[in-house]
Design goal:
about 150 residues, alpha+beta, eight-stranded mixed β-sheet
Length: about 150
C-alpha cells in the first residue's frame, strides 16, 4: 500500500527505503553501489518515504535520483538494517532501512545526483565487504535473485 505522510514531516518517520540494484553478468549477480556525498563511503541508494508511493517504488525512485538506475523493483523486502543519519540541523537521527531489490534495466549517464556520487558494480562478496553496516552486508551477501517471486 502507498504511504500517507499527511500527518507528519518525513524526517519524523525515521524509516527509509533502499534499493539493492542488481544485474546478472553471466550467471552471477552484481550489485551497484554508490558513494555518499560527504564521506565517499560505499552505500546503496536510499531515502525517506515518498507520499503516495509504495516502499519499493520509493526505493526505485531513489535509485534513479542517486545512481541513474532505470529498473524494476520487487515489492518484497529483503531485510532491514539501521544506521544513524546526520540531518540538516546537525542532529543524529536513528534510521531503520528496508531494502528492496531493483533489477537494473538501464543505467543512465545523466541523472539528478550525477557529479555528487561515484557508482560501480561489485560481485556479491565484494559489495558486502565495501559497505559499513553489518546487517546490510548480510543482506547483500545472501542475495539470491532466483528466490525473488
Amino acid at each position: 500500500m502507498p504511504i500517507s505522510l499527511n500527518a507528519c514531516h518525513k524526517s519524523d518517520v525515521r524509516s527509509q527505503f533502499a534499493a539493492l540494484c542488481w544485474r546478472l553478468q553471466g550467471d552471477a549477480p552484481e550489485i551497484l553501489l554508490i558513494t555518499t556525498r560527504g564521506t565517499g563511503r560505499w552505500i546503496v541508494p536510499k531515502g525517506w518515504p515518498m507520499d503516495g508511493m509504495t516502499p519499493a517504488a520509493s526505493a526505485a525512485q531513489e535509485a534513479w535520483e542517486e545512481a541513474g538506475v532505470i529498473g524494476t523493483p520487487a515489492e518484497e523486502c529483503l531485510g532491514l538494517y539501521s544506521y544513524t543519519k546526520k540531518v540538516a540541523d546537525g542532529a543524529a537521527v536513528p534510521c531503520l532501512v528496508m531494502v528492496y531489490p531493483v533489477r537494473v534495466g538501464e543505467l543512465r549517464e545523466d541523472f539528478p545526483e550525477k557529479g555528487q556520487r561515484r557508482r560501480d558494480w561489485f560481485s556479491l562478496p565484494e559489495a558486502a565487504l565495501r559497505v559499513r553496516e553489518a546487517a546490510l552486508a548480510q543482506i547483500i551477501g545472501g542475495f539470491d535473485p532466483g528466490a525473488l517471486s
